[in-house]
Amino acid sequence: MGKPPNLYSYPSVNELAPQLRAFVLSAQNAGIDHHGSFRVAVSGGSLPKTLAQALLAPGDGSSADTPRFDTWEVFFADERAVPLDHPDSNYKLVQEELLDQIPANLGKPKVYPIDIKYLDDVDEMADQYEKLLVSKFAAKDSVKLPIFDLLLLGCGPDGHTCSLFPAHALLREKAAWVCAIEDSPKPPPKRITLSLPVVTAASRIGFVATGGGKKDILRQIFDTEEGRALPSGLVNEGAAEKVNWFTDNAAVDGVTFPRRGSL
Ligand SMILES: O=C1O[C@H](COP(=O)(O)O)[C@@H](O)[C@H](O)[C@H]1O
Fold first, then answer.
1. DSSP classification of residue 111
2. Number of structural domains found in the chain
3. Three-state SS for 39?
4. Closest among 180, 196, 252, 232 to 45, alpha carbons compared
5. I need a surface site. Which of 34, 93, 151, 252 has the fewest CB within 10 A?
6. Please, are residues 57 and 19 in contact by the beta-carbon 8 Å criterion?
7. Which mean pLDDT values do the consecutive 10-residue runs of the chain (263 residues) have?
8. Would 164 be classed as within a structural domain?
9. Which numbered atom of ligand 1 lies nearest the CA of 163?
């Protein structure tokens, strides 16, 4: 690995949130400058709440510090094969925590949930979501991989990220952009997920991991060989300098990884 990922830690989520905001808005502004929109894929779990705290806070009024939601194209890093109003739905979580709370003057994002027609056929659901990405990121034969401006990821207590789980065969997927999983060890079992090559191809990657419940897994990921082979560790290895971890002190208690600090 060349330059290692950045690991930022803050006393609490209250101090982390403004730094996460700066990181997301810098990716937003780079996307707008580059191609006129901001293509972001978001995760479920604990991320949407922290993201909402970051983005819905009042800013300093400068254009650099203003969310331009009208330019956002929101995709899902992973999704569970459940209806969009089901308590397990990542879409529902993101909608309730963030999308529904956006004030009208900040614009309305375009949001791309899964197609619920395919709830009973998760392979087809993954194919359809991949087709959606192809249509948004150009024809697949001219673009090897979609390049998201930003991926916002979580890290489960087993080191999973998106719906890429430790030692699962999906970690070896090279061709597909979106994969189906029917045996997720964390319920619900049927899900779709971006593949590892798509994750590591993103322009920027932000992990958000907070709370003492994450400290054992972060210690493993950053300080051990086995941890580096876990899905979140593989993102660190595959995308290194593009990866930024936003953590609180409780989550990195005991991590000896050297690149610690503030954004
Ligand atoms: O199942 C999932 O879990 C991960 C991690 O969630 P967290 O609550 O530990 O942050 C999440 O990133 C993913 O989107 C979700 O489907």
1. E
2. 1
3. strand
4. 232
5. 34
6. no
7. 83 97 98 97 98 97 97 98 98 98 97 98 98 88 90 98 98 97 98 98 98 96 95 96 95 75 58
8. yes
9. 16
Residue 1 domain-assigned (yes or no)? no
Tell whether 59 is covered by a domain: yes
| Domain residue limits at 199 | 6-261
Which class for 262: exposed (0-12), middle (13-18), buried (19 or more C-beta within 10 A)?
Answer: exposed
Supply the ipTM of this predicted assembly.
Answer: 0.99
Residue given tokens 């909402």 in the structure block:
52
- Residue 71 corresponds to which tokens in the numbers above? 């330019």
Any ligand 1 atom below 6 A from CB of 193? no
The answer for residues whose C-beta is within 8 angstroms of residue 226's C-beta and 6 or more apart is 220
Ligand 1 centroid to Cα of residue 165, in Å, is: 11
Distance CA 217, CA 247 (A): 13
Mutating to test ligand 1, I would choose from 43, 94, 151, 221 the residue with most ligand atoms within 8 A of its C-beta, which is 43
